[in-house]
Amino acid sequence: xxxxxxxxxxxxxxxxxxxxxxxxxxxxxxxxxxxxxxxxxxxxxxxxxxxxxxxxxxxxxxxxxxxxxxxxxxxxxxxxxxxxxxxxxxxxxxxxxxxxxxxxxxxxxxxxxxxxxxxxxxxxxxxxxxxxxxxxxxxxxxxxxxxxxxxxxxxxxxxxxxxxxxxxxxxxxxxxxxxxxxxxxxxxxxxxxxxxxxxxxxxxxxxxxxxxxxxxxxxxxxxxxxxxxxxxxxxxxxxxxxxxxxxxxxxxxxxxxxxxxxxxxxxxxxxxxxxxxxxxxxxxxxxxxxxxxxxxxxx
Amino acid sequence: xxxxxxxxxxxxxxxxxxxxxxxxxxxxxxxxxxxxxxxxxxxxxxxxxxxxxxxxxxxxxxxxxxxxxxxxxxxxxxxxxxxxxxxxxxxxxxxxxxxxxxxxxxxxxxxxxxxxxxxxxxxxxxxxxxxxxxxxxxxxxxxxxxxxxxxxxxxxxxxxxxxxxxxxxxxxxxxxxxxxxxxxxxxxxxxxxxxxxxxxxxxxxxxxxxxxxxxxxxxxxxxxxxxxxxxxxxxxxxxxxxxxxxxxxxxxxxxxxxxxxxxxxxxxxxxxxxxxxxxxxxxxxxxxxxxxxxxxxxxxxxxxxxxxxxxxxxxxxxxxxxxxxxxxxxxxxxxxxxxxxxxxxxxxxxxxxxxxxxxxxxxxxxxxxxxxxxxxxxxxxxxxxxxxxxxxxxxxxxxxxxxxxxxxxxxxxxxxxxxxxxxxxxxxxxxxxxxxx
Lengths: 299, 437
What we know:
Chain A is an all-alpha fold and 299 residues long. Chain A is 70% helix and 3% strand. In chain B, helix 5 (150-165) runs parallel beside helix 7 (190-200).
């Protein structure tokens, strides 16, 4: 019986972690949908946004002001990326855009460090960090922080999914993702779409940075969290917001269950690569990912 | 400008450069430092580098150098990356007449430099990090890892746990947990822990943390919550430490039973966990805080506007460790000068100085660093020091408090292992161990 409750606890923890992965993956999906490029800088955007937020807090500003200012910086950042980088790369090969995002990543890392230093910044935004004990004799522990973070992340993901599915901007976004030139020819302002999508990705990065920063402290290792989103993207599809959610949950639960029940037999520390194995198994049957657009090219 | 004038200009420039190089050779004792003040590991690398820099600057400021020889200090940024560390080494080794000693501040960089530094006759000081078997000076003449190694640290940590439990016999039947970075550094003490487990009759569970996933340890701590090891020992680095301490607090693991090694117990490791980190313990081989006599001189340095950092940040665990490393380097230079004269010494002469280094308790007192750094005595065959020991410190929510006196390592157990590993290295690399008799 105890084992059963422990299994439930493992699955729940996997789902909480998966929601957080989905939040990181979402930033990638948004930019991929608009430009067809994998944004290497997404992890660094998470770091930079969180550094700005915590930096403003340390200046003594109220939390809401710090959030608005950090959000404004991420929007300004989107303008800057469009004005100084993307504008010159319209209709270029995706690999060229990808290389540009690598440059953006290095710039952002150095710029963030220049502005805010390399120290670890503790962050407490008031998310409760106690625990609930449920089940017989309170055998199962549920972290209040994880539940709160999952609710925030899940809510944000749902809002964005609705926004991009049911609004004109969402439709324009899909058109831009399919073909830059065709989108331009029917009057979709490509530059504006890019600014919007980079700004939204920046705001998603800000929320992700604040949540992860509350757990780990705002520090440069936040940028490596982007690695956790990769198998989620492979599994869910690079172009699907719901895919990021479902992919995140599958990866989160899969890696936790594997680490605990399979890990001890093969030396442990397997969740890093196990996530990719899960993604690969899915790809064997659905190369475009669970929810990715199926590409049919005529010869 | 015709060919002749171009040739003359180039020749003049070349002569000028040679002159400058000559002048550089005579200008002072060059001590480069391979630092990492950028990237994910910067919170740990920055204070260490400042402690090292400040101590050397203090020697220049207070004494005008070492016996009249001014110290030239330069940093090269590695980002804690091995390839960049090797590049830094190549860049600095011949500057200012040649590097006196190299502090790699990374096990990975140390491993990569062992052969190069030995060939270049420049000593490496990997103070308290890998490679452990470099303690055998017969096989590793140019590598020094005093005042202690990972293997000896593990024996001392187990000794501390035994003391807490009321003796080694109380360890029998206990189950411990070992969480470590899944990396050569994290795995280094495992053979020692295996031997200790067998010797004292305890068992332990291993919890490897992959470097790329060090900020996601939920599944590990769920297992810990289930199996409840009597003690958790951590061999971590960077964000792995703060994540582990945070998760341990989340699963209500008793923090006074959670002990980190000396690279897992500094301010950046505990501050992110807030109050949850209170009670966490760690090994250390250096003191912490500014209540040491040497800080009168460090403060004078800052009063003169020559300190390298923000004054309010000095005195932490890693800053103190950087100071201790610099103090050992300065004492080794003094030792070499005692043999070769009060002048700029070469890397080869520095090796002699390090191999004959004897920083007694009295000398540590003279340095104003009693409790801040342990005495060491290095010999030809023992580059770790004769009496490696650790102290246990505990985080009280605001600062680290030293909780024990020196806990001596079990060298009788580890020395044969060190020699065995060094002999294996010698065999693989066709090295004939030198005689130290």
